[in-house]
Amino acid sequence: MNIFSDLLASSEKSKSREKSQLPGLKKQRRRIEIKSKREIEIMRQSAKIVATVLKEISEMTQPGMTTADLDAHAEKRIREMGAKPSFKGYHGFPATICASVNNEVVHGIPNPKKVLKEGDVLKVDTGAFYQGFHGDSCVTIPVGKISPDAETLVRVAEEALYKGIEQVKAGAYLLDLAGAIQDHVEAHGFSVVEEFTGHGVGRNLHEEPSVFNFRTREMPNVKLRAGMTLAIEPILNAGSKHTRILSDKWTAVTIDNSLSAQFEHTVLVTEDGYEILTDRSQV
Q1: DSSP letter string over 114-126?
Q2: How many Å from the N-terminal Cα to the C-terminal Cα in the chain?
Q3: How does pLDDT run across 182-232, given as a tens digit for each residue?
Q4: N or C: which end of the chain has fewer CB within 10 A?
């Protein structure tokens, strides 16, 4: 899950009111967490819950369903597997999944009136809080048959995620994966959304470091260490990279009504590479 920068910049007073209501939400840590073997094993379980739910939603999504139908399934399954939804109540977010359709970029709120149609491009992002740790992942789902242009956007978005993940290992830098993502996206004529980034994940849904998808000198170029757990999540627009927030204070949409696609995995940094904790092919 991405969180809009304005929300992260909310007052400490506001944050303190939310803490008691939200699973695993603590004051944002300034240091980067290195997970122990025990903590990594728990994260494997929380991530497996997320992967299972997203795989089920990918398989069940069809025209005529509502985004609220998918949200209800996600919450039911997360709780059945002994976890809590990470997103529900987070900074006031009202649902278990973010369901963003077509030009909706991130943080779409599920709605019983939002009926999915043939050709829609649906982004489903969700998280699970299990034994003190979060897993976080997102998938873009074609609803029925989508247009060739939409197919290309979705394919490139998923490829971009793996281009970034392939750069991950102890001793690499965030700019290594950011550059790999940006180059792949722009080579296909799409734009990288810069207003939202990936992040560390663990005891808190959002931890340091920010995991950006484009080259920048405005954020620290962190050196990766074994035991770091990162939510890597490139977001692509078919047109302009810029977004705006709707009146619900959550849903971000493209400013030019172009399509958007996103993929995300929770990834463990290892000494010689990486482990994709939310790998849906393993559930």
Answers
A1: -B--TT-EEEEEE
A2: 21
A3: 999 999 999 999 999 999 999 999 999 999 999 999 989 999 999 999 999
A4: C
Q: What does the DSSP 8-state code read for residue 105?
A: E
Residue with the two structure tokens 């949200």: 71
Structure tokens at 210: 């920010």
Q: Which two tokens stand for residue 230?
A: 């990162």
Q: Is 281 helix (H, G, I), strand (E, B) or coil?
A: helix
- Token pair 């980067």 is found at 32
Number of residues written out for the chain: 283
CA 207 to each of CA 1, 197, 225: distance values in angstroms, whole numbers, following the listed order: 12, 12, 15
SS3 state at 128: strand
